[in-house]
Design a protein that fits this description.
Elements lengths: L15 E2 L8 E2 L16 E3 L4 E2 L2 H10 L10 H5 L10 H16 L3 E11 L9 E13 L6 E11 L5 E12 L21
Antiparallel strand pairs: 1-2, 3-6, 4-6, 5-8, 6-7, 7-8
Amino acid sequence: MSSPAEPATDPTTGTAPASGTGPETVVRPGWAGRFYEDFTPGDLYEHPLGRTISEADNTWFTLLTMNTSQMHFNAQYAEHSEFGRPLVVSTLTVAIAVGQSVTDLTQNAFANLGWDDIRMTAPVFAGDTLWSESVVLSTRASASRPEAGIVTVRTRTVNQDGTEVCSFLRTFYVHRRGAARLRNIRPRPATPPSTR
């Protein structure tokens, strides 16, 4: 079964008229993420969303991942540590940092190749707000996958005071713009959208 024909796109705006909705309705595509060609070594992406960590986040992630260290879920136990309170489990900090970076780095990636040099440089506690940024270190075309390339970045995460709490290298495969695997994956609605 063939896909419906794509509407003609205005080359100056990158937009297309919505089928059957009249000349006043224009499709304005949302942010589609970066492709291999968009990455340049030295570019720094300040990921836009901060994330405040709650006690529930820490407890649930600890339970979900079967982490039995009481430093993350037993307040009385943690009270006797040098920190005096539970620490956020470090793998949650890394997971949030990776998640924060997706909008800028890997919306069009199809495989992570590795995380290296992971450093937890300051403690994280419930109530802290994390922000992340990534700098592009290198890019190279894939010899085995002509529609993709390999990108390596260094991501770091800071808390609300600007203190770095985490950093790591990350390498991933990302599609080139126009990759066949990404074409026509969005279905077209059978009826036009309502403009009233």
